[in-house]
Amino acid sequence: MNSQAPRLLLLTRPRPQAPAWLARLTALGVPARALPLMEIAPPADGGAAARQAWALLPQARLAMFVSPNAVAGFFAQRPAGASWPAATLAATVGPGSAQALLGAGVPAGQLVQPPADAASLDSEHLWPLLAGEDWQGRLALVLRGEGGREWLADRLRERGARLQALSVYRRGCPRLDAAEQALLSQALAQPAAHVWLFSSAEAIGHLAQLAGPAQDWSSAQAIATHPRIADRARTLGMGHVVLARPEAAAVAQAFASC
């Protein structure tokens, strides 16, 4: 849409996820910088919920991880010598979470995620892979931040599963350092020279909070990794929003089209 150069892609994922994403984008020739719009913090319970999840894991048929942050929060409390139970499935929707689970030692044969060619990487496209199971009376764990979407949990409950949702990290509006604040100010002042990459609708809310109510978003450009996130960006008033899968190659292609 916009041919002005140079343009800069703004990666809004939490700080711990930024280096790997920036490396992949840079390798694809995408000029990008990190501007985190989500702060990830340890849970208020000091890890008690994650330790409870580990105690329950051998009894569970499923452990659902909503994000790489959930994977990190859970495995931070891994008991010494504990391994992934042979009868427990690990499910997630995003490739980043899947890689984190494999890296933590979850066997590939027990990992369930939407197929690579799924129309969208979300719970709706994960559920068909789980729906064939007999869930009556079986334990399903959901590892997440505080709160979160209930769609998959509702499907499991409808099928008779015993659901246990456990918060293993906290999300919040970030405290930007001086360099990040300067980058934000630059992006708000020069919307044609920047493209936002959103992987969370909550992050868009944080951006609105940081920018203030007087900001004009009509010239802003954004890439969203899910239709719900795109809708949130449009609701804010962003003038040009495109969809891309949460993969570096897809984001690079979308960036070229902006």
From TrEMBL:
<protein>
    <recommendedName>
        <fullName>Uroporphyrinogen-III synthase</fullName>
        <ecNumber>4.2.1.75</ecNumber>
    </recommendedName>
</protein>
<dbReference type="Pfam" id="PF02602">
    <property type="entry name" value="HEM4"/>
</dbReference>
<dbReference type="GO" id="GO:0006780">
    <property type="term" value="P:uroporphyrinogen III biosynthetic process"/>
</dbReference>
<keyword id="KW-0456">Lyase</keyword>
<comment type="function">
    <text>Catalyzes cyclization of the linear tetrapyrrole, hydroxymethylbilane, to the macrocyclic uroporphyrinogen III.</text>
</comment>
<feature type="domain" description="Tetrapyrrole biosynthesis uroporphyrinogen III synthase">
    <location>
        <begin position="23"/>
        <end position="250"/>
    </location>
</feature>
<dbReference type="InterPro" id="IPR036108">
    <property type="entry name" value="4pyrrol_syn_uPrphyn_synt_sf"/>
</dbReference>
<comment type="pathway">
    <text>Porphyrin-containing compound metabolism; protoporphyrin-IX biosynthesis; coproporphyrinogen-III from 5-aminolevulinate: step 3/4.</text>
</comment>
<dbReference type="GO" id="GO:0006782">
    <property type="term" value="P:protoporphyrinogen IX biosynthetic process"/>
</dbReference>
<dbReference type="InterPro" id="IPR003754">
    <property type="entry name" value="4pyrrol_synth_uPrphyn_synth"/>
</dbReference>
<keyword id="KW-0627">Porphyrin biosynthesis</keyword>
<dbReference type="InterPro" id="IPR039793">
    <property type="entry name" value="UROS/Hem4"/>
</dbReference>
<dbReference type="GO" id="GO:0004852">
    <property type="term" value="F:uroporphyrinogen-III synthase activity"/>
</dbReference>
<comment type="similarity">
    <text>Belongs to the uroporphyrinogen-III synthase family.</text>
</comment>
